[in-house]
Amino acid sequence: MSSNLPSWKTLRSNNLKKRPAYVEPVVDHPLKNLVVIDRIPRRILGSAPSTGRTTPVLNTTNISEPLALALKQLDPLTELALREELDPLSRIVAEREERLGTVADLKDESQNQDNIAMAKGDLDKWSSRKAFILQKYTTSEKLSMVTSFLSEGEKVVVKAQSTAVDKIQHRLEQLDSFEEGSQHKLDLSQSEYIFKINQLNKELVIAWNQEQRVKALKIAIQCAKMLSDTEVLPFYPSKFVLITDILDCFGRLVYERLHSKAVYYKPGTKVQMPLPEDFTPDMVPDSAKETCLNWFFKIASIRELVPRLYVEMALLKSYNFISSNEGPEALRRLTEMIQGIGNPLVAVYVRCYLCRVGLNITMSSDLDFFRKNFESFLENYQHLFSRGVKGELHSQKMTLSTYMTLYTPALDFLMEHVVLSSQDNALSELLSKCKQYSSSSLILNTIMSGFKPQYISDRTLQFLTMIGQCTDDGIPLHSLLRTLGLCVSVSPPPVEHKKQILNTVWSNIAQLHSPLEYVGCVEVWIPFIAQHFTTREVNTVLGDLIDRLLPDRRYENFPSELKTIIYKIVQNTPDFEALLAMENLLPVIDLFHEESAKVEVCKTILSSKSLHDQTTGDPVISNALMFLGGILHDSVNALTPEDENRQIGEILCNVVRMVHFGRDFERQLQFYVDARGAFANLDSVLIQLVRCVNLLAVDTRQIVKRAHTRKTGDFVRACAAYCFITIPSIESPKARLRLYLLSGQVGLFNQCLGQADACFKAILTVIPELPPRGDTESFLLPFVRQLLSALLVVPDNPERGVLSLIRMLLNLLRAFEWTTNQPLGFLYVNVIDLFSIMAQDFYPYHVDKVESNDALWGADPRFLKEIDNMTAIIIGQVLGLLKEMGPCRKQAQLAAELFYRVATRGDLNVNQVSTLALNLWNLCIKHGHADVAYLARLKNYLLGHSLRIDSDPLRLLLDKLSLPQ
Prior knowledge:
- By secondary structure, the protein is mainly α.
- A two-stranded antiparallel sheet has the order 1-2.
- Strand 5 (263-265) and strand 6 (272-274) form a beta hairpin.
- Helix 9 (190-209) runs antiparallel to helix 10 (213-226), helix 19 crosses helix 21 (441-450) and helix 26 (515-532) packs antiparallel against helix 27.
């Protein structure tokens, strides 16, 4: 038979006709008049054994246009039989009439632009949907995969192709190898299946990059065929997500290639330019349109319906290269073709993919295809209960309710886009149409999921009635209640219906026997109850929740749900006292058997906004706060991160500040004692407690108007004792120093001299604990100055002698390991200031009812002599430090500070003092490190000071001072 075939050269010469000189846009395949080379397997032609190859035979029938046939929803073979008698010219006329007829059906572009933008914006939500689907729809069963591109891979044979006909023949042989080549059936686990799918995606990209377009198409077709397989129903939504990602990749690669091949001439120029992103079909050259049509011809030749639909949908955006009408027309045509898919689950996901890729058509389109797809599902809804579906469910041991949930991802996506592309009156019309299926829980759940929450919430009672009318075994009652509850939590229902809604909903929830279903409904509806009702209703719900979960320790299965319930109650309850006063709140917290979950819940409650800047004196509330705080405190250990320690410490400090019993100071102090025992492991809380107790002592003095009675005196001494006992438990030496100083000052303020003296002595024991590095010196300088200011009014202890505390402090400072001697020198200068004030008859400030040294010693010569001796020693120490420093800026600064003290505090009538002051001034300016501006201001100030006090010795000294030029 093959010997009678004409040669390829003859065929080519007979069919290549000269074209007219003018250019006319065409809608037909450019190779339409070529003689088709049918490939008939040898096993059909004769008895010879099959070799897996095909033999070309001549068929005088002209090629029909596959795209035109697909547009009429007929397979190529049937259309070929119908049009076999038509000549090519008649066929072209008929096809053009069909295309022109569809143009009249398109809607006005201006009416749909806003809806298109909204739909495209919502397309971004698909990414979040994918993660949810992959997480929810899983399986432990084996998944089968039939492919010829994994395992050993496909052997690609590259042949020399000298003519266009040879190129066509080679590609046809490649397509045949897909039909008859070796394929492998793999039984894989879920993780292996996902790995293989990702591997196929990589193979597709590799094949495309290696210019193997046919192989890439074959991979896409094989992947699309997998979506016809429903052998493992629970995994089908996840399979849809995985495989449509591959199809999206294939469609993007084709589109980018077509876009890169299409160039046009900008009007008025002869320069070729690439197509812009917002190109129009009239800008696309004929060669690019021909390439695009060739892709769709290949797709139209796919034999099976499901892969043919999926692959064409993947390339749907490429219709923009052909005509502005092709995309919308394809959407309507594909919507009708899906009716031919027998499996309702497969069909609904095909519709989902069609709607998703339909949003990528950049031109104005008829948005009714969203609604048409959903209405087509409604028309075929009864197929979900067909004998074939029931048999499949029986074989896979799946319940109808579980099977129904497989539809929700696709239907929710469809419904959301129906809502986005419809006006409010259209939504009411659609709702009326769906009422015909009021007994269908699946459709009802889809409506509540897809419609706007406000639209559903305003009709809550109506939907509760529809939920009660559901008679099928599809979506269970608890799922319907959850979906409705989500709408109500986002948008509140009418005020006048709230009580009736709560009664109806709770009567339905009470019928649920499964703890999982019950907890799921409570989790969704608790915000509505907390927002619109009192804590009495919330407390009732929590009590019922405890009764349901206590038997058989069921609560151990719902830690995350219980956590969410507590969080939503806290978030929606503005009155923190009413929140903590609920008798069932703490028992619910006790249901958490994992310590981490309980800590997180307590942290949520105590960190709520309603607790900020609030106070309470209710013992019930304070006990609840201590209970929650104790859980947080006990969770801290040596392995707790520093940031977690800090966060918990801040929360507990807020708890300490919240509890306030007014003027019942004894009760307040007892609370602080209890808090110290409960929160003893956190320095930040102990610091807060010491400050609060000191504040309590100050408030006591203000109330008694500085006249302590025996009772109040005992109380403030108890406060001082509390502080003195608590401070050593704090780990940080800097914090202890600050608190000892504060407590000593408060003790003096309340005439607790013994307690104050003990605090000041304790300071002297803590200073050596400071590390001689880091920021210790920057901390110690201001702290010692504050301490010196306090010691001025502290009376000497007769048992320890004159200026005993200051002597001990100076010895500590001299023995401290300073990195440099500069800080010690400046502290010595401050000590000189202190001694000069102590030598006065009256101190500039006092503590009420506390006799300072000016009252104890007065102008006693022995006291003044001791001050003079210690001052001379300090000055000698400073001069020694100046010598050790050597010429530097710090030496000049220290010399200037000491000069000022000698000039203002010393007796300049004494030659030694006057000479010392002059030498210090000269030391400042000797080496050029002095701050000349500061020295000038200092000299002017001293000049004015000498005039005020009429000091001749100071003026004589100033006359001897010179400033550097």
